[in-house]
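User: Here's a chain of 179 residues. Predict its fold as tokens.
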Amino acid sequence: MKSFFASTDKENAQQAGYLFLITNLLGFVTTGLMGMEAPPGELLVSFLWGLSLAGIFLTIKPLLGDNVPENWREGTTFLAAAIFAGNCLTLGSDGNEFGPFFFFICLNMVALYAVSEGVIGNIWRYNLLVGGLMGVIFAGAGTFFGYEPPEALMPLQLVLWITFILGLGVGPLLAWRDR
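Assistant: Prediction complete.
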């Protein structure tokens, strides 16, 4: 049990990456394919999603190493704490209270794209960039201007979601595997 809680950065990153992929897959199957409004275990899956995303960001600094300045160590810790706290605070809410946090996450995805050259594979970096930019636009429009995208833009939101998962879930996971 000690090894689970005192694992290496690589093991933590891999656990967080796999958990992120699993929670997103569960969310897609239950709410996307099955069309469930409030599937059983939704709060648990949402909690685990926030935990996994925070874990991914906690392990970004060790992954990138010298590619980023030292202040990223504190920055990624703050980002992980903000993501996890924001996610926990919005569990069970009906509105779009997570919008500002999602905007913040997507803005940091663009920053991660900029500093991860040579560490994360380019295809995953481009997913970070596309997902991050689309997230900044959609989340920013909703958060700061109250804009709700029309139903016709739902396919673009699916692209955002897929690039979000690939960029943040698969990219760092594969980069850690290669280390």
